[in-house]
Design goal:
It is a single chain. This protein is mainly beta. Helix content is about 15%, strand content about 55%. It has one helix at about 5-25, and strands spanning about 25, 30-45, 50-65, 70-90, 105-115. The radius of gyration is 16 Å and the shape is globular.
Length: about 120
């Protein structure tokens, strides 16, 4: 995950993961559908590097958070949500790394909102 994320994106995602681990919570990571409605919202030329592209998209995900004993503390097993994301992507600055899966780096990632979809 870290090799495909810029500092800001990795810090945001990792902080969320660490907070759940500290509380001994487990998030259902299943993505049921998507990404859907992928849309290029804009592009910006950067001063010292390749351009940055801003994308929005949504997924359908299960909203279910469990504690260490498996009890549901948020959502439910059938709480299906459409989650709306925005993501800034740039060409990876270290393309010579042999173990990169993709030539892109997520520089920023944000959840814009979610809504029940069933």
């Amino acid at each position: 995950l870290q090799k495909h994320c810029g500092d800001a994106a990795f810090a945001a995602v990792n902080a969320s993961i660490k907070a759940r681990r500290q509380q001994k919570f487990t998030l259902d990571t299943g993505i049921l559908a998507g990404p859907n409605e992928l849309e290029l919202k804009g592009a910006k030329l950067m001063e010292n590097g390749p351009p940055c592209f801003i994308w929005t998209f949504n997924t359908q995900q299960v909203n279910c958070l469990r504690d260490s004993s498996g009890e549901i503390v948020e959502g439910d097993v059938d709480d299906i949500r459409t989650v709306h994301y925005a993501m800034a992507v740039t060409k990876h600055p270290n393309l010579d790394e042999a173990d990169l899966e993709y030539p892109w780096q997520v520089s920023e990632l944000a959840i814009l909102g979610n809504q029940p979809c069933w």
